[in-house]
Automatic annotation (TrEMBL):
Its main location: other. The gene is PARD6G. Residues 18-98 form the PB1 domain. The keyword Cell membrane applies. It is found in: Cell junction; Cell membrane; Cytoplasm. This is Par-6 family cell polarity regulator gamma. The lineage of its organism: Eukaryota, Metazoa, Chordata, Craniata, Vertebrata. It comes from Ailuropoda melanoleuca.
Length: 105
């Protein structure tokens, strides 16, 4: 069992302020934890997600499933804080490659 997964499991069972994050990129899933009360900034979260999925050179969009199952964007600090605060008990994050805009002549 790798160290980060073990730490994540410990946070989930012993610390109510931890939010378990399950992120999906293609067929690949990753899990990690965030502090519900001090989640940080969107930019740091974005860097963590692309680093965790080993896609640092890929431009992506990040979204999450809300309590109704709707896919909502995480693209700024406000959306990120809303996503973390609404996670109960899990924040499901979906990552997609950002499509390149077509060139217009």
């Amino acid at each position: 069992m790798n160290r980060s997964f073990h730490k994540s499991q410990t946070l989930r069972f012993y610390d109510c302020s931890a939010v378990e994050v399950k992120s999906k990129f293609g067929a690949e899933f990753r899990r990690f934890s965030l502090d519900r009360h001090k989640p940080g900034k969107f930019e740091d979260f974005y860097k963590l997600v692309v680093h965790t999925h080993h896609i640092s050179n890929t431009d992506v969009t990040i979204g999450y499933a809300d309590v109704h199952g709707d896919l909502l964007p995480i693209n700024n600090d406000d959306n990120f804080c809303k996503a973390v605060s609404s996670a109960n008990p899990l924040l499901r994050v979906f990552i997609q490659k950002r499509d390149a805009l077509p060139l217009v002549n």
